[in-house]
Design a protein that fits this description.
The complex is a heterodimer of chains A (644) and B (374). By secondary structure, chain A is of the alpha+beta class. Helices cover 41% and strands 17% of the residues of chain A. In chain A, the strands form six sheets. In chain A, strands 2, 3, 4, 5 and 10 form a five-stranded mixed β-sheet that branches. The chains are: A alpha+beta (644), B mainly alpha (374).
Chain lengths: 644, 374
């Protein structure tokens, strides 16, 4: 077996070669296969794999942009930004999440509950996405973290920028920012691709209204990372773009002054420029600390806000609904004059009550006012006089005038929380209540009770549009330097005293919209308001300002929360004797100065009792403050038409 | 027709030097130097441990290869069985004294190096069967009783390696043995029978597989199914090779390997790294080098007179070819990840030693091409 002959060897050798040849063919096939694969990967699909390789290589971390500022008319910052100290955790860099939290707990004051929710969040996101452990540390905590940093793998101390509100006076107007919620992401398209940890969005007020522009553009840091997620080197940084800053028409000093006066009351004040509609002040009280929301509100504080019966979170100036009460009498009177229902000197006798349609209608003055005409009726706020006027006028004509002057619809477009109120009439009642209108309800409407609902800012607009001579203005809270036609017109009028302009020329030359049929009627109402505030017997006479520079003309009002019972009426129960929540809301509207009106104001004090006692004194102080700052305001922005 | 033995053994050293296949030597050197650059790149562009020890190993074993080339082919023939048995004993020794690393017991500690006998067995088995079939007459090759010994010497070490467990090396050892048997003229039907037996035993074998080995096979079938788990290696390797494109990312610029996306870049995935940095042309360069080496060994087989030499050279060339394509097929995602080094390129002393030993024997077939073995 072992000694093969040489011939055999040759045969064997040939066999081997033959078989080797077969093997070589199959080798060639295999080589072609490998080659084909190489061509497919490195040539045909190379682009795809290059993209995948870059996807591996680069990782981007988004940077939250700096939010724009919100300033007042004098460029004072109402909402600014400040440096905050934060610590972030990048889970994949931490050896053990448990250990990091354990160490953190010994360094910072951090609750188990918070740790639990953080862990839940970590489980949901990608391991390289940073999670904010604490977004607002004080300096000593921050330095302590830095001291122990070597023991805290995955923890990164970050100096960041966050919103800060300089005072609480404008909390309602500005609103506040807070962490992006899932709902925000769903509802707001501009937040797409902006999911940056620590990003805050406007939740209410102007912060919400301006959010899209004020929020800025997200930046990013692009790093080359290795397979373990470690950052190797920075490739590119795009710092993003800070949000746009906004200037408002507000006067921060007036805001603060007003807020101080309103402190602890459930009240609101609205001050408006009667020519250009600039909102000078819009304060709602009690206020809250908007800074508390920026870094996540504490439960205790939140509960205290929610449980407070004076509702600090509500912007009462735009979303508080109150029956206008006697302040509506200006409009009732104006409507009656415009519709020629009554002449100014026509009289009505007030005996303290009248009986109509089988119902008793009481005047607020039990003994009655005696003989009343339009001027005295407004001056002394006689209910019986206005019952009679309203009866003759009818609710539909009244509602027409009231709507014209700004009631029943939103004044600003800026606040989602603003409400439109109700100006009732027969069709409204049919539509919303499904009943016919009772004549008795016309009488209630005539003194601003019943279905009437208005916001303080609507009352302010109404007053402003009476005060400026009956022209429509478009209130605004964001600074706007566009030309003011109304002032142009007044300038023209001052320069050409002898030349009355017919209404149609007003419209075409100055693009003004007169709300009156006869401007004389407006004057009559303004004069009656003057008497109400400045003549003895006027309802707000006690709060008058005698200095000619500040003298205002106003109208008080109180809106009933609960109808007086006969017994209470007989016993002459005073508002102060009632329980807080049963007291009337106190209202006051005014414009000033009388000689050359510039501003309108509305004050509402919830459960304040009577307008003359609770609301007018506040208006008096605020008016003085606003007028004192008038020349300063004029000087700050040289606007066309300002110098009248 | 044979030249007298005396002439053969009286070759002068100059004659021997002259008869060395310098194309082959040159190809090996170029490949070795290329592998040093690749290793330098795996070390992050620094002269570190892997590069250093790779250079030392290559140099030492290259010299060994050169020296072995001058050992007479008769010696290899006469000691074939002995070499096989030494390697087998080492392999058995692994089972009792072997070092365990990442769940696999493969190495023997010899102080100056950790030896992986399974790598040596690749050559040992070829030597054994080359001698065996050299001696079995052509009439007897296909007699059943002459099949027992080859089957035994093939199965026994293969099983030992499978149980280490090291599926990749086991397959490579077995394939080397199968190639010798094929070349020796064992009929195709026997291979078919063997295949059928193997397939019928496969379910039983699979039940013995470790979970990670099962996962690898499943992963090969669908790597995208578990991109961060078992499929990670294949996907990242394909990304690296594909992103290399035509010209590559440049030396020391392979982001996939630099940033550690590439697993096992020193050993099994060294081709991936090279391909990423030097692109399609780099890959072709490597393929050509291997092609050259394989064809030179085949050429030696053509030249050598003894059937032992022919059997050995053809088998070794084919086995070498299989090592290369299995590794490439693996990193290119054509084959499951079984763990097989790329000859000479990959980091690993035993593999280098085994390949150089194999090449040395082949070269001695060249030098003593006319010398009869018995």
């Amino acid at each position: 077996m072992l000694s093969a002959g040489s011939g055999n060897t040759v045969i064997k050798s040939k066999l081997i070669s033959r078989r080797m040849f077969l093997l070589s063919i199959s080798k060639a096939v295999v080589v072609v296969g490998v080659l084909g694969r190489l061509i497919s990967l490195q040539i045909n699909e190379s682009t795809k794999y290059k993209t995948l390789s870059d996807k591996n290589r680069f990782r981007e971390w988004k940077l939250a942009p700096e939010r724009g500022l919100i300033k007042d008319y004098f460029n004072q910052e109402i909402a600014s930004n400040k440096q905050v100290y934060q610590i972030h955790l990048i889970p994949e860099n931490a050896g053990s999440i448990e250990e990091v939290f354990f160490r953190l707990k010994s360094i910072l004051n951090i609750s188990d509950k918070k740790i639990f929710s953080l862990k839940k969040k970590i489980a949901k996101q990608k391991p390289w996405e940073p999670i904010i452990i604490s977004d607002n540390l004080n300096w000593s905590e921050f330095s302590r973290i830095n001291l122990f940093l070597h023991e805290l793998q995955g923890i990164e101390p970050i100096v960041s920028i966050a919103r800060v509100y300089n005072d609480n006076s404008s909390a309602h107007v500005l609103g506040y920012v807070s962490q992006v919620s899932a709902k925000d992401l769903k509802n707001k398209k501009y937040l797409k691709d902006m999911s940056v940890p620590g990003m805050a969005v406007g939740k209410t007020g102007l912060e919400r209204r301006l959010d899209k522009e004020i929020i800025g553009k997200v930046g990013f840091q692009r790093y080359e990372v290795n397979a373990f997620g470690k950052r190797i080197k920075q490739i590119k940084v795009n710092p993003g773009k800070a949000g746009k800053s906004f200037k408002t028409t507000l006067d921060l000093e007036v805001q603060q002054y007003t807020a101080e006066i309103l402190k602890d009351k459930a009240a609101s004040v609205c001050v408006m420029d009667i020519y250009n509609g600039d909102i000078i002040s819009l304060v709602s009280s009690p206020s809250y600390d908007p800074n508390a929301f920026v870094h996540g509100i504490e439960k205790n504080y939140w509960n205290s806000l929610i449980k407070n019966e004076r509702k600090p979170l509500i912007n009462k100036a735009v979303s508080g609904l109150y029956p206008p009460g006697s302040t509506i009498k200006t409009i009732v009177a104006l409507s009656a004059l415009e519709n020629k229902i009554i002449r100014p000197l026509d009289t009505v006798r007030c005996k303290g009550k009248i009986e109509l349609f089988g119902e008793k209608f009481h005047c607020w003055k039990k003994k009655g006012h005696g003989i009343m005409n339009m001027r005295t009726g407004i001056k002394r706020s006689c209910d019986v006089y206005f019952y009679e006027v309203a009866r003759r006028l009818g609710v539909d004509r009244l509602s027409e005038t009231a709507k014209k002057f700004g009631l029943g619809k939103k004044v600003l477009n800026d606040f989602v929380e603003e409400r439109s109120g109700v100006v009732p009439n027969t069709t409204w009642k049919k539509k919303y209540i499904g009943q016919n209108w009772y004549l008795g309800e016309t009488l209630h409407s005539g003194i601003g009770q019943g279905y009437f609902q208005s916001t303080p800012i609507q009352l302010c607009l109404m007053t402003a549009q009476i005060a400026n001579g009956g022209f429509e203005i478009k209130p605004r809270i964001l600074f706007d330097k566009s030309k003011n036609n109304l002032k142009e017109y007044l300038k023209f009028k001052n320069e050409n005293p002898g030349q009355p302009l017919p209404t149609d020329l007003l419209v075409s030359n100055f693009d003004l919209k007169p709300l009156f049929k006869n401007q004389e009627n407006i004057k009559i109402i303004k004069d009656a308001m003057y008497s109400s505030s400045n003549e003895p017997g006027g309802t707000s006479y006690r709060s008058r300002l005698e200095d000619k520079r500040f003298t205002f003309a106003g109208k008080t009002g109180s809106s009933q929360i609960r109808k007086f019972t006969e017994e209470q009426r007989e016993a002459e129960v005073k508002q102060e004797q009632l329980k807080y929540e049963n007291r009337d809301h106190a209202l006051f509207i005014a414009f000033a100065p009388v000689s050359d009106p510039k501003y309108a104001i509305s004050v509402v004090v919830e459960h304040g009792g009577t307008g003359s006692k609770a609301a007018a004194p506040i208006a008096k102080k605020v008016i003085k403050k606003v007028l004192e700052r008038h020349s300063l305001r004029q000087s700050i922005n040289n606007l066309p038409g300002d110098s009248i | 027709m044979f030249q007298p033995r005396s002439i053969q053994s009286s070759l002068s050293f100059r004659d021997k030097l002259k008869s060395i296949d310098y194309v082959l030597v040159f190809s090996i050197l170029v490949l070795g130097i290329t592998s040093m650059f690749a290793m330098y790149s795996t070390d992050g562009g620094e002269f570190k441990y892997h590069t250093e020890s790779h250079i030392i190993r290559f140099s030492v074993f290259f010299i060994m290869f050169f020296i072995l080339s001058f050992v007479q082919i008769r010696f290899w023939h006469s000691t074939s069985y002995l070499i096989y048995f030494i390697f087998l004993i080492l392999l058995i020794g692994v089972k009792y004294f072997g070092l365990t690393s990442s769940g696999s017991q493969r190495w023997l500690n010899f102080y100056f190096m950790n030896l992986q006998p399974s790598e040596l067995m690749k050559i040992g088995l070829i030597l054994f069967l080359a001698k065996y079939y050299h001696r079995v007459s052509i009439e007897n090759v296909n007699k059943v009783k002459f099949l027992f010994l080859p089957i035994f010497v093939l199965i026994f070490p293969t099983l030992l390696v499978v149980l280490q467990p090291d599926l990749g090396t086991a397959i490579l050892i077995a394939s080397g043995g199968v190639v010798v048997a094929w070349l020796a003229g064992v009929r195709a039907k026997f291979f078919i029978y063997a295949l059928l037996v193997f397939i019928s035993l496969l379910p039983i074998a699979i039940s013995f597989l470790k979970p990670y080995q099962k996962a690898r096979i499943l992963t090969f079938l669908n790597p995208e199914k578990d991109p961060l788990g078992a499929g990670y290696q294949i996907i990242q390797s394909k990304i690296a090779i594909g992103s290399g494109g035509l010209f590559g990312k440049g030396f020391l610029n392979g982001s996939q390997s630099y940033l550690d996306y590439l697993p096992e870049k020193h050993t099994d995935f060294i081709f991936t790294l090279f391909s990423e940095e030097f692109g399609f042309f780099g890959s072709i360069f490597i393929l050509l080098l291997y092609g050259l080496i394989v064809s030179r060994i085949v050429k030696i087989g053509n030249l050598t007179r003894s059937n032992f030499g022919k059997l050995y050279c053809y088998s070794f060339a084919t086995a070498f070819f299989i090592y290369v394509v299995v590794n490439m097929g693996m990193v290119l995602g054509l084959l499951p990840i079984v763990g097989s080094p790329l000859p000479i390129m990959s980091y690993g002393g035993s593999s280098m030693m085994a390949i150089m030993l194999g090449l040395g024997v082949a070269m001695s077939c060249r030098v003593y091409k006319d010398m009869p073995v018995n």
